[in-house]
Amino acid sequence: MDPEFGRLVLPVRDEVRSLYGGVPKKLQGLEKRLGDLAEDYLKSKGEKDPDGNALCQKMAIEACLNHPGALPGLAARKFLLAVKFPASVGYDEPRLSKKLNIGFTHKGQLETLGKRLAGRELPDEAAVADFVRENYHPMLWYRSLDRAWEWFTVGSFEDDEDAVVPVIPPVPLFYRCALVALAIVLLMPGPLQRFHIAWIVSLAVLWFAVSMTGVNNPRYRYVFEPFCLIYLFVGAALLWRQIVRWFGILTGRTKGEAESSSAERPPAASASELNLLPSPSS
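User: That's the sequence. What structure does it adopt?
Assistant: Structure tokens below.
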């Protein structure tokens, strides 16, 4: 990395650390800011067609190659930063209208896609807001279901997506149990063990790629949660089957040892043999 550009980045790093306590959440805005900073730097160097994002990508690749051992921890911290926020907008107000209004007007696509999406002209943001208000309404039943799922998977969470996370949250209990279940599935012998190994490794690689390359977004975990739940049941079933098998072996061995001991014991003597019965002459 160019040392001169490094001197430009360091003040931004120090500002982010002082503002968020070393745990920034708005990584998408920070990424744009660094891209603009890189583009201005390239312009100052006389670049005719500066590409700040390409420079940032080059620096990111360089950092990954120089510190590969730090990548799993970085991916885990990015993932944990999002676990205290809901994975969906909940389809309730005011977030529903806010997200839809942003989506319609994002990146100047309103003029190109507005009529095709809405069936009528949407010339400005006020027209978009009217269209959203007329056609999109909260689904209370979904919000209840969504909140129940969030409580089940991550426990307490922040409704305000703009809230600042002061420290990196711990791994939620749901994911801890899922990791234990995954370990059980990987270690238990069986005809499907190879399949589970291949599938779990694929999920781990996908999780790592999403966490490393994507923005710090809670909804990225949503695709992994159903598989965590499935493997919770699979791991519990395999563990229960193994416990039953061990118990059967143990009880069978105990029963066999008792029968063997009984067979080796000499037969009990009869009463006449012990001279406990009177003789016929008496």
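The mean pLDDT is 78.
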